[in-house]
């Protein structure tokens, strides 16, 4: 409502000045209006009402519904798959009983979401109803006030707006006959990820089959002289916690399992600032991981062994609240997933507010590290097995069967575009992949799969 200035102008027009000189010295002015005074109070109350209306309806409320819808749809698809798996394995054994329990849990989640949506929609309906009433009374009052617009300022302005709108529409129509603009080239020089080939390497580590959870890889921004170094973290306590990172000077020494150098993060395992969960990465000579029993990003400096950290938003899930998984398994304590790409380090996590869906944040390297830009996605974290980043695009995988993992989802941080229709398959050597990360330097994917270390090449178009 920017008409308060206008109304004052309008009021000025309806004032008529009568002046008369009474004597040679004194002049007297008599101020008369031809109309009753402009009802400023009424005008102010309309303005207040309009402000309240704007406050009570915000676009985020409507986003809330659409996020819920996407969440429900995603889970329904998931449930459908779970049921068809159950049908296939319905031979009365224990595994079926487990699946039925999982389906029950999924169903309960869907019902809960539906309830939430029901509540949200109902509250929106109430808002719309009360807003419609208020709007009608505001319209009526404004019409009354318009009677004061003797010089037709408001009328003319409205007419101008209508003409302007027509002009815009006309311009749109003109533009529509032109071919659509070509999409601007992506920052990613190598193009789009279209396939994953391999495995290139497939081996047990020096730990043998002792530790099914862990991660390995190569630092994408290595310290000088460390270009060929490989890092390895195995979760040595309960397959959940670790307190050191192991380095090998080359791939061959790693595969043979000789010449390991360990850097100790903490002397106890677990303890404050030790590692929790497998989705660790090394970048710029530092290890990024989920700090023990805390919704925070920890960074361990490999050269001076200092540890710094930064908290994630309130209500971020940790210690097995929002883990990755699939029908047959939950990848425990995978609440936080770290990723590296051409631009640096990222962290994937989830909060109660985002209904267990994936949230992505930039991790800024400074000391201490901090969080940069953040994106909400509609990907339900538990329906994915892993995530990784390539060129600012988040990819997620799911479990197809024991031999195949599928990259099915992507979220482009540049355009905000979300896709659920990717079908890039990864050939597995073991049933589960506990961690998966992309290295922008050699463009390889590094996977830790049931105690085996596996690498893959990526193909770009
Ligand atoms: C939505 O709420 C209404 C009113 O409380 C209730 O009758 C209906 O069963 C609810 N629907 C769902 C799907 O929860
Ligand atoms: C992806 O790579 C695999 C293995 O090389 C190959 O069999 C498959 O045809 C490729 N898929 C596409 C879509 O290029
Ligand atoms: C790690 O420590 C070294 C030596 O103190 C320092 O030069 C380097 O910048 C640190 N790295 C990070 C990522 O903080
Ligand atoms: C993500 O969703 C949460 C909860 O709805 C909201 O508070 C937050 O502002 C959103 N963040 C972004 C970057 O959209």
From TrEMBL:
Keywords: Secreted, Signal. One of its GO terms (cellular component) is extracellular space. Residues 187-461 form the Olfactomedin-like domain. Its main location: secreted. It holds the Pfam family OLF. GO terms for biological process: signal transduction. Transmembrane segments: none annotated. InterPro entries: Olfac-like_dom, Olfactomedin-like_domain. Residues 1-24 form the signal peptide. It is found in: Secreted. This is Olfactomedin-4-like. It comes from Silurus asotus (Amur catfish).
């Amino acid at each position: 409502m920017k008409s308060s200035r206008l109304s004052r102008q309008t009021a000025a027009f309806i004032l008529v000045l009568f002046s008369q000189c009474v004597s040679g010295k004194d002049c007297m002015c008599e101020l008369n209006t031809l109309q009753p005074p402009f009802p400023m109070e009424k005008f102010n109350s309309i303005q207040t009402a309009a402000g309240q209306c704007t406050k009570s309806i915000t676009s985020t409320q409507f986003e809330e519904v659409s996020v819920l819808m996407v969440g429900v749809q995603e889970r329904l698809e998931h449930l459908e798959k779970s049921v068809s798996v159950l049908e296939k394995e319905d031979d009365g054994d224990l595994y079926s009983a487990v699946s039925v329990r999982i389906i029950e849990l999924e169903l309960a989640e869907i019902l809960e979401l539906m309830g939430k949506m029901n509540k949200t929609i109902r509250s929106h309906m109430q808002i719309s109803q009360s807003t419609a009433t208020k709007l009608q009374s505001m319209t009526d009052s404004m019409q009354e006030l318009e009677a004061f617009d003797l010089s037709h300022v408001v009328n003319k302005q409205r007419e101008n707006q209508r003409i302007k709108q027509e002009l815009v529409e006309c311009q749109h129509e003109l533009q529509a006959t032109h071919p659509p603009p070509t999409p601007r080239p992506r920052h990613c020089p190598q193009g789009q990820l279209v396939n994953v080939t391999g495995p290139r390497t497939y081996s047990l580590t020096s730990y043998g089959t002792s530790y099914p959870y862990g991660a390995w890889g190569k630092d994408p921004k290595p310290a000088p002289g460390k270009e060929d170094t490989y890092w390895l973290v195995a979760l040595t306590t309960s397959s959940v916690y670790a307190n050191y990172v192991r380095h090998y000077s080359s791939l061959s020494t790693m595969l043979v399992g000789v010449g390991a150098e360990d850097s100790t993060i903490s002397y106890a395992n677990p303890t404050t600032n030790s590692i929790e969960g497998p989705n660790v990465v090394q970048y710029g000579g530092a290890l990024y991981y989920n700090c023990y029993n805390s919704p925070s990003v920890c960074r361990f400096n490999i050269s001076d062994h200092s540890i710094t950290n930064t908290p994630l938003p309130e209500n971020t899930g940790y210690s097995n609240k929002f883990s990755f998984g699939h029908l047959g398994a939950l990848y425990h304590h995978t609440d936080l997933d770290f990723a590296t790409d051409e631009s640096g380090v990222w962290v994937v996590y989830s909060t109660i507010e985002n209904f267990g869906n994936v949230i992505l944040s930039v991790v800024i390297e400074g000391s201490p590290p901090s969080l940069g830009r953040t994106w909400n996605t509609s990907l339900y974290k538990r329906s994915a097995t892993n995530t990784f980043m390539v060129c600012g695009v988040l990819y997620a995988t799911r479990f197809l069967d024991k031999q195949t993992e599928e990259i099915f989802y992507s979220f482009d941080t540049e355009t905000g575009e979300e896709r659920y229709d990717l079908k890039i398959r990864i050939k597995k050597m073991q049933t589960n992949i506990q961690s998966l990360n992309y290295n922008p330097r050699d463009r390889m994917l590094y996977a830790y799969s049931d105690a085996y270390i596996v690498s893959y090449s990526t193909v770009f178009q």
